[in-house]
């Protein structure tokens, strides 16, 4: 999706840290897929560097890649490209989880399989790539993330639904330092469901 030369401050040790590059690759992911809701999908930004041999030979580049996380957190093999894949909505790339986003964020399954959580449109941007961390992450969650997710899930479901509540997965101090600046909202069912709740 994007590539470039590593900044001077990331050129010393191999492998270089990915945190400083993650915000830029997240922006590239959103632009490439055509939707601000890219992080509510199974499509993720990965960061690639030269091999150790290339590094030893003086190569200092990076590339932002897009990958499709499939069931059991494996990667889906694809042909063709994914440019513009989310222009019409999340569709087949919607992220569904076996459990809840807080306790099992990696338990990705196809949405037609039994699951309890569905990422919904309405990814909330909480800061820019160079913004300092908020002084209180708990307050950020209470004041901004939870109200936003309540509204996003209600819109997704077309109103309230018994046995389904809203949930949000936002950054903590460690995530923020690693470049996470968004919150993803989920519709969370009390019991497993098959098929998408928002249709």
Secondary-structure-based class equals alpha+beta
Beta-strand content bin? 15-25%
Morphology = globular
Low-confidence stretches: none
Looking at how many chains there are and whether they match, the oligomeric state comes to single chain
First-residue to last-residue Cα separation: 31 Å
* Average pLDDT figure: 91
- Radius of gyration over all CA atoms, rounded: 18 Å
Count of DSSP-assigned helices: 4
**What fraction, in percent, of the residue positions are helical?**
10-25%
Largest sheet: 6 strands, antiparallel
Number of separate strands: 9
Helix-strand pattern, N to C? EHEHEEEEEHEHE
Organism: Virgisporangium ochraceum
InterPro entries: Septum_form
Domain Septum formation-related: 24-185
Pfam families: Septum_form
Summarize this structure briefly.
Residues 24-185 form the Septum formation-related domain. Helix content is 22%, strand content 24%.
Please describe what this structure looks like.
It is a single chain. The protein is α+β, with helices and mostly antiparallel strands. It is built from 4 helices and 9 strands, in the order E-H-E-H-E-E-E-E-E-H-E-H-E. It has helices at 22-33, 52-56, 137-157, 173-177; strands at residues 2-5, 43-48, 61-68, 96-97, 108-109, 115-119, 124-125, 164-169, 182-193. The chain has one domain (2-76, 83-193).
Which tags fit this structure?
single chain; 199 residues; alpha+beta; six-stranded antiparallel sheet; three-stranded antiparallel sheet; 4 helices; 24% strand; globular; Septum formation-related domain-containing protein
């Amino acid at each position: 999706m994007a590539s470039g030369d590593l900044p001077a401050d990331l050129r010393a040790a191999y492998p270089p840290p990915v945190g400083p590059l993650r915000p830029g690759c997240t922006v590239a992911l959103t632009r490439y897929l055509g939707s601000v809701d890219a992080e509510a999908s199974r499509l993720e930004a990965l960061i690639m560097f030269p091999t150790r041999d290339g590094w030893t030979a003086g190569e200092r580049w990076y590339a932002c890649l897009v990958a499709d996380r499939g069931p059991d957190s494996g990667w889906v093999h694809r042909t063709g490209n994914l440019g513009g894949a989310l222009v019409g909505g999340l569709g087949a790339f919607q992220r569904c989880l076996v459990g809840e986003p807080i306790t099992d964020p990696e338990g990705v399954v196809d949405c037609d399989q039994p699951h309890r959580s569905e990422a919904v449109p309405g990814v909330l941007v909480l800061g820019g790539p160079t913004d300092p961390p908020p002084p209180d992450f708990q307050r950020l969650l209470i004041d901004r993330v939870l109200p936003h997710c309540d509204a996003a899930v209600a819109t997704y479901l077309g109103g309230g639904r018994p046995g389904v509540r809203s949930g949000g997965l936002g950054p903590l101090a460690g995530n923020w330092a690693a470049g996470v600046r968004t919150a993803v909202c989920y519709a969370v069912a009390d019991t497993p469901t098959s098929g998408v709740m928002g249709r």
